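User: what does the whole thing look like in 3D?
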Amino acid sequence: MHNENQSLIFELSKEGRVGYNLPELDVPDFDLTELLPEGYVRQEAAELPEVAELDIMRHYTALSRRNHGVDSGFYPLGSCTMKYNPKINENVARFSGFANIHPLQDESTVQGAMELLYDLQTSLVEITGMDEVTLQPAAGAHGEWTALMMIRAFHEANGEGHRNKVIVPDSAHGTNPASAAVAGFDTITVKSNEDGLVDLEDLRRVVGEDTAALMLTNPNTLGLFEENILEMAEIIHGVGGKVYYDGANLNAVMSKARPGDMGFDCVHLNLHKTFTGPHGGGGPGSGPVGVKADLIPYLPKPVLVKKEDGTFHFDYNRPQSIGRVKPYYGNFGINVRAYTYIRTMGPDGLKAVTEYAVLNANYMMRRLEPYFDLPYNRHCKHEFVLSGRRQKKQGVRTLDMAKRLLDFGYHPPTIYFPLNVEEGMMIEPTETESKETLDAFCDAMIQIAREAEENPSLVQEAPHTTVIGRLDETRAARTPVLRYTKA
Amino acid sequence: MKHRYLPMTEQDQKEMLATIGVESVEELFSDIPESVRFQGLYNIKEAKSEFALLKELKQLAAKNEDTDSNVSFLGAGIYNHYKPVIVDHVISRSEFYTAYTPYQPEISQGELQAIFEFQTMIAELTGMDLANSSMYDGGTSLAEAGMLAASHTRRKTILVSEAIHPEYRDVVATYAAGQSIDIVTIPAKNGITDLDALKGLLNENTAAVMVQYPNFFGQIEDLQTIGELTHEAKGLFVVSANPLSLGILTPPGKLGADITVGDAQVFGIPESFGGPYCGYFATTSKLMRKVPGRLVGETVDSEGKRGYVLTLQAREQHIRREKATSNICSNQALLALAASVAMTALGKQGVQEMAKQNIAKTRYAKNAFEAAGFEVAFQGAHFNEIVVKTNGSVTELNKQLLQDGIIGGFDLGRVYPELENHALIAVTELRTKEEIDSLVEKMGVYNA
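Assistant: Here's the predicted 3D structure for the full assembly of 935 residues, as structure tokens:
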């Protein structure tokens, strides 16, 4: 990264420069005022930049150098599964037969794409232990909402439309309650116990005849496996509710436990996490949903099926479907990448992925345990949560330590989440990192813990080496400037 | 096991297990109850080598008819446009595509600034005060606009023009069901929203009126009048707009729109069998704090240096949980970057020239069809699509056209029963005069 002011593309603009080359117009030009109604010909041009091609490339190259990705360095951002994004995936998604096909072409002309999607669906059915999978949701939160809409439709079809409560643990991702609200449910929070797991007594207390569903992440956001999962499922099923699996943490249990075998009725996956999406700086994602048999009728339209003659078909004749959740068939390009990954790993590979992800996390946890508070001291799964309580007493907050990590070239862990850990730091190494990388990161963390004792201001004033210092977020929110305006 | 993505060696494993204080990796999974433990391996296809997999998937891709080796006149919301070559070079930089959401602004200034520039370009094109960092696609963005309108007005009915993309309308209806919002369809007449019908439908329950610009049939709606009618009823006016067309059309922001949404697929994003695309969401300053999704704002660091951060996060799910304005988290950041590069390359002049070419070529096609004896169904002003009446099934006709390397127009009969035997033909700047002439000629032959 280099340390200079970065112009906005608009500030590089100069009248008369172009960065495009359109085909020659080979048909007669028309006078727009003849073709368009009065008042509909744009009077003031949109102020897009006027820049030549090299300057565009330099601009975006400069921006890329001011950005940290997995390829730049270690990225242990808990709950986000920042694993390596294989390059073969990028090549395959760009094959013309995948990138340049229109979603409304006749089915007979896109059988290759449909075969890929069908095979991906089938693989995900096996991986989740569900009965059917839809690939339509565009991201995890979209998948959550899709599944909740199906649960809603299921209850309504059974004359139980009064079930309007979705139960969410206090450690849940923020999308869970938000998705429940968008699907028209009220949220009830269930507490965690002192072991960091859902408090069964509290769960029994909050369930009732208005329970529509429980949303659960397993392992949970503390990286701990909910051992009482069968009992929890029994409690929810006992009152007629459905159990929903947030698959954000699937990297922890592949080939070890399947949501379908743990009593879950539906699940969403994050193909951009577990199956190497990639993340794209905040999307695109892909959030397929798997369901057990009794929810199949409510799957979003269309449902991809294989016909007896071996051809693939989009079935729109689904009278009980919740309808469409997205135009066309989901984020196909991401699904192609995930499929390529699954085919690269195979059954042995996916098992190794989980084993190494869990081994890496436990190793780091034990290396860091002497230096930081570990609120839940037991084997973790793919991630673990430390508390910065000890350092806070020295005047150094978790935010400060996160910023200090930037000076070492690392992306910090997820911080202040889950909400039930004070000064939390959620660390997820993933399986694609080497022991050397884990050790170097642990060494940096240990050094920072020492600095917090001996030289707290060094940590409090971090970062020291980035292109920009800590930014004034209050000012950004109080007087929002959300776009460039020419001076 | 040895795998190129997995650097663990036997020695590493031994040392790590010793540090943890366990004998085997299996012990780390002892908290999973035996009764739910998965035994063995997944029953999925065996792994393939890099070379063998590339070969297999290339063959699979080759089974599809693509718009690169055929000449496409298929649009209906997703278009075959000029994609500046630099777009793919920029989004292939892995500092962008292997990053997560820019939660640590000090090491994410590149992404944050790129989004800030995207927000600016979308605001410029739509004539709105501000735009967010992107949505999944045009359809879900329209649905989010509907939910915002219902919550803002505390009203429960949304009027949706029949001339909006049918799949968008379906998505709006699904979201509306979750919020117990009623959807009422405003009929189309002669290929545009029927204003008399609209007047009859507007009332004190109207949260929003939604139209598309240009609409699904390629026609230009009278936004000015629809906006005035909507505001008289105190509803919000929501426009789903093709941002390329706004290079030449008066932007919705100048014609009374409260929210403008759409898809930036037209800017450098391949058709990709339905996604990923790039929804956008633009609105007025008044509604700023109700916008779904992420917003990037400008600020300064401790030394007064300009920088960018995610801002107004009190709207978002990770802070507000069930009280958030939307549940959206991951959006389409990489596609917003792609669209930004394309908008930058086209620039102020290119976006006008490209939009103009679309109108001119479509007009040429319209004249050619009429000269060849075809009926063009709607005679209003159009952008880059026209509706051509055929003698028989459009789907059957398209099968014949494919023999000549042509991907024909969308079969409107699939979704509008009254438009059976009508093809929606899209003509972009990429179609040559020769290709258009050939389409008209071939359709004439097969149509006879």
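In plain terms: Chain A touches chain B through 206 residues (CB under 8 Å). Chain A has a mean pLDDT of 96.
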